[in-house]
Amino acid sequence: MKTVVLNIPNESSILSTFDLSVYLATKLYEDEILSAGQAAKIAQLSKRSFLEIMGKYGVSPFSTKKEDLLEDIKNA
Asked: What is the pTM (predicted TM-score) of this model?
């Protein structure tokens, strides 16, 4: 796994390292750059925990693509 160092201003100290990692992972998932499993690893959470916490960050665990929805319905 890569390590990235971010310089965060002291004024933003209300955000914990956990919040920052989950926010980043959620955004990368939302932008379809990472899968839920990959994003969960960044946040150091299980995939299930990551999917459950995404709502706090305003992201739905469900795809908004019509094709994905139809595939999910077909596989249900």
From this structure: 0.72
Give yes or no for a contact between 11 and 20, defined as CB atoms under 8 angstroms apart.
no
22 assigned to some structural domain: yes
**Which residues constitute the domain of residue 33?**
14-75
pLDDT of residue 27: 92
pLDDT along the chain (76 residues), means of 10: 78 77 91 90 94 86 71 74
User: Does residue 68 lie in a domain region?
Assistant: yes
Kind and range of the H or E run holding 63: none
Q: Does a structural domain hold residue 50?
A: yes
Query: What is the tally of structural domains in the chain?
Result: 1
How close are the terminal C-alpha atoms of the chain, in Å? 34
Q: Which residues of 26-40 are buried (b: 16+ CB within 10 A; e: fewer)?
A: bebbbeeebeeeebb
